[in-house]
Specification:
Shape: globular
Order of helices and strands: HHHHEHHHHEH
Strand content: 5-15%
Number of domains: 1
Number of strands: 2
Strand order of the largest sheet: 1-2
Helix content: 55-70%
Mean pLDDT: 89
Radius of gyration: 18 Å
Number of helices: 9
Low-confidence stretches: none
Length: 175
Amino acid sequence: MSAEAGDARAPALLRRMACFLYEAMLLFGVLMLAGWLYSIVSGQRHALVGRGGLQAVVFVVLGAYFGWFWAHGGQTLAMKAWRIRVVTRDGAALTASRALVRYLLAWAWFVPALAWIAASDLHRPAPIALAVCGGIAAYALSSRLHPSRQFWHDVAAGTRLIDVAAVAGRHNRVR
């Protein structure tokens, strides 16, 4: 990674959240295909039968998707579209093991929502959706407390998000 990437700032929070939303839309298709294949292989005919197996498959598919993209260029498809890259603290590319650690720690996005759901004993879809959206918003806004505006799972994983557009802009100005 270049010296410019070592000094790059985190992309704006709104841009990171737009990327998050775009990623969710792309993953909808990936997970639909994974779920369909799981139901064929397992003979699943009802959503609640074999739910644990399906959840494990989804967890592994998401880990493979993110881990592969982060370890091979530092960008998922959505991150490429929004010109965001994940690098180590010193600006180097992620190894497969660092990508795996980041993936596991990224589940922290859902901790506030899960805590809220458990504390409130929610069972209906609308309040659960509100809890998930509120928890994601709370987690995202907590990045404003970090001096570099990084997400907390990135801090713990030794990674950070950089603004590829800003790095490219600085590189072009030097020439």
